[in-house]
Amino acid sequence: KYTGPSFEETMQTRKEYLTPALLTYYKNPIMIVDGKQQYLFDHEGNRYLDMFAGIVTVSVGHCHPTVTKAAIDQMNRLQHTTTIYLHPVIGEFGKKLAETFPKESNLKVVYFVNSGSEANDLAVMMARAYTGNFDFISLRNGYHGASGNSASLTALHTWKYPVPSDFGIKHTLNPDPYRGPFKSSDPEAGKKYAWHLKNLIEHSSPGAVAGFIAESIQGIGGTVELADGFLKEAYDIIRAHGGLCIADEVQTGFGRTGTNFWGFQNYGVTPDIVTMAKGIGNGAPLAAVVTTPEIAKTLSKRIHFNTYGGNPVSCAMGSAVLDVIRDEKIQQNAHDVGSIIKDGLNDLKKKYKVIGDVRGHGLMLGVELVRDHETLEPANTETAHVFEKAKEMGVLVGKGGLYGNCLRIKPPMCVTKEDAKFFLDVMDRSLASL
Ligand code: PMP
């Protein structure tokens, strides 16, 4: 039973002492005080099925006992010194992480940092230092973080402040086969979007770039899958212009897409740099940049250091997460339960006209609501209604997309078939109440 500060006190402290920019996600906000695997509990003991996992962060389950034990054991032994001394767990975790990449990719050198934003900032710096080029390209509608370079890579006006962006960062047309100008019905769509990328390089850079970054499936942008064939074409174009290709796997990694451990593997490409965060630590403030030995060498020309990057507690947790993913066949579960949910959502699409698109892979799913299938007018108030109704019935989902009209379904990957059934039933009832 929860015995801490009351809901009202907590709300008052938050209003008075914390940034006013904080989102409270529901009309009647909830206070979450306990978590167990795929469930969350509020201060009154109400249980919620968590279909958003702390924004796609809790990969193997809230308070997973293996991860918790790893943290506690390490905390009791040694909490911190930094990487100026040797510590076995950091290298062991780095090795295990490197082993998750395809051998032929040679992606095996790991830099540990603390957040996805930091990982992307580092990737940009690394690509610039390695190539000697400056210009950088990301996709419109992409989200890559909120600090320095990463905030500039992010291309959603809702996240941008009127302050200068990083010079040299450009955003190409988003290869969105649902909302973009070239639709999924067009077999040449991927190529057409790639043409825009090449055109951007030719007209707004010296004809050479440092790199290109993309999420394998856009998360905050509303679970947008890139047009077929785009990524492969894009990687070829970037490399032909001297740049490195970076996969932002902050949301799509660690088996979430079900078919592969890394999202990029679903699209037949091999990046030069991979950034990851969130699911890597199941909630620990941990992130990483993985690259090839050759690219990694560039940063040894100067000192590169990060106080908490590679701290033993976060690394012990990250290492335990990899063990759980393997031992509990988490990726297979993401595939199996994700397929049931996606099929169920497609059935609901036949029943409710407001569903414009169901997309994603494994447990990285999204539903876009529209008022008109031709104009694609965003059904944002309808989305907010479904989102609130689901909460009332004990299911927490995410909301996203530039227009706030996408439901994001990305639960801890230990969700079961029974949870999927309950979730679909709640979705059905929430949509019926529109
Ligand atoms: N990349 C992606 C794809 C993300 O979703 C996020 C966070 N939502 C980030 C980077 C930034 O991560 P962080 O919030 O840990 O800085």
TrEMBL record:
Family: Belongs to the class-III pyridoxal-phosphate-dependent aminotransferase family.
GO BP terms: glyoxylate catabolic process; L-alanine catabolic process, by transamination
Keyword set includes Oxidoreductase: no
EC number(s) from the headed UniProt entry: 2.6.1.44
Cofactor: pyridoxal 5'-phosphate
Protein name: alanine--glyoxylate transaminase
Quaternary structure note: Homotetramer.
UniProt cross-references to Pfam families, sorted A to Z: Aminotran_3
Subcellular location, record wording: Mitochondrion
